[in-house]
Amino acid sequence: MHIHILGICGTFMGGLAALAREAGHRVTGCDAAVYPPMSDQLRALGIDLIEGFGAEQMALEPDVFVVGNVVSRARLADGSPKFPLMEAILDAGARYTSGPQWLAEHVLFGRHVLAVAGTHGKTTTTAMLAWILECAGQQPGFLIGGVPLNFGVSARLGSGAAFVIEADEYDTAFFDKRSKFVHYRPRTAVLNNLEFDHADIFDDLAAIERQFHHLVRTVPSTGRVVVNGLEESLTRVLHSGCWSAVRSFGAADSDFSAQGEPEDFAVLQAGRVCGQVRWELSGLHNQRNALAAIAAAEHLGVPVEQAAQALGTFQNVKRRMEVRARVVLPTASQGQPVTVYDDFAHHPTAIRTTLNGLRRRLGTQARIVAVFEPRSNTMKLGAMKAQLPWSLEEADVAFCHSGGLGWDAQAALAAMGARAVVCDTVEALARRVAAQTLPGDHIVCMSNGGFGGIHARLIALLGEAPSS
């Protein structure tokens, strides 16, 4: 089968492309504003990428067009279609489907699907769960919204019965407004947390809770729902009806809980210590992610002790506090190097959690510099701008890219005073950051996009080649 994927460089669609290629299908695709890591992964797989959504791609004559949710029926200012290829597909009556639907029919059917849902931590928890099952010899398939360092790819078919998938609540396609995860039909569903997000799709938190309950409805009676015991929103979801076994994590009285620091903690099952996790990750959020993964893996027969040992070798995911460089400033050759991180955080809670985890690890003496862009649709709409000062409390100074926003970032960050700096271009932002950097600083660049290549620009501005 030849499939042509519209929006192929999104993390989900790129993973789907990798799975289709591994399954022996011919895969081509198109997208705009391509950026790593997905573009690099696709090229490494030998998948042909076409820039843009031109109607001339109809000449490829694939068996089916797989349409990502980046595609719409929108029109430009001059009245022309924003996605001419989609208009041509509709005009020709060509066969098309959504990514989640294609995946459900061609990859997930017949597998034990473990779906990881939640506002935050989906990618990391999915990667943890896949690694636990891998270490247990179950050879799982997976599709993850990032590149786990233990595997080096975001998706694979796997030869075992299990398939682990990051379950996104975002809509499926312009012609299917249900959340992606309702297509997956999991036997094990992880509900990691639930906050308001995706303001371009959902009116309020209740609307998202309704979609999460739609996911719960698809879990069989012999399945398992793994739920964060600290989340009132998820309690409401389950109170709407649950027909499967439930296992909780996170709270002191949960089925799975933790004792100790996030970097070294005991895992308790039903109040009894059953394993110990010692790893390089930091933050209470990662401790809870670990508990969720352990509880899900236990449903497939992996003992807690074995799962905890596996997490000791877990290497995290690209763009999750990934160290891009350590640079010794030319003006302080004997001083401590500046560490530049790349992180995917973009929701205020995720920003706060990321910075809090780093602060816990570094202590109060270290200087943390936050560099971020409100890039998600929710942030661009300004729905959460009031939470930004709260999210940045652990940063000693914060730099915000305000380009393309329809609201005043300077006003939103006014409560931070001189600790907040706003620039309307990435180039100006990088220069301001570099000018104010001190030896030993920890610079955390946070965005759910490429951030205009700010990491490389900063490293170049800060000095010579990285020292490590």
Helix content range of the residues, please? Answer: 25-40%
CATH class of the largest domain: Alpha Beta
- What would you give as the CATH superfamily of the largest domain? Mur-like, catalytic domain
Q: Tally the helices: what do you get?
A: 15
Q: Please state the CA-atom Rg, rounded to the nearest Å.
A: 22 Å
Give me some keywords for this one.
468 residues; alpha/beta; 31% helix; six-stranded mixed β-sheet; Protein-Tyrosine Phosphatase, Chain A; UDP-N-acetylmuramoyl-L-alanine:D-glutamate ligase; Rossmann fold
Written account of the structure:
- With 468 residues, this protein is of the alpha/beta class.
- The protein folds into 3 domains: 2-99, Rossmann fold, CATH 3.40.50.720; 110-311, Mur-like, catalytic domain (UDP-N-acetylmuramoyl-L-alanine:D-glutamate ligase, 3-Layer(aba) Sandwich), CATH 3.40.1190.10; 322-462, Alpha-Beta Complex (Protein-Tyrosine Phosphatase, Chain A), CATH 3.90.190.20.
- 31% of the residues lie in helices and 23% in strands.
- The protein has 15 helices and 23 strands.
- It has helices spanning 11-22, 38-44, 84-92, 99-108, 122-135, 205-217, 232-239, 284-299, 304-311, 348-362, 377-380, 388-391, 409-412, 426-436, 454-462, and strands spanning 2-6, 26-31, 48-51, 64-67, 96-98, 112-117, 141-143, 155-156, 162-166, 171-173, 176-179, 188-191, 224-228, 245-249, 256-261, 264-269, 272-278, 322-327, 338-343, 368-372, 397-401, 420-423, 442-446.
- The strands form 5 sheets. The chain has a 7-stranded mixed beta sheet, sandwiched between helices.
- Helix 1 (11-22) packs parallel to helix 2 and helix 5 (122-135) packs across helix 8 (284-299).
- Mean pLDDT is 92; it is low at 464-468.
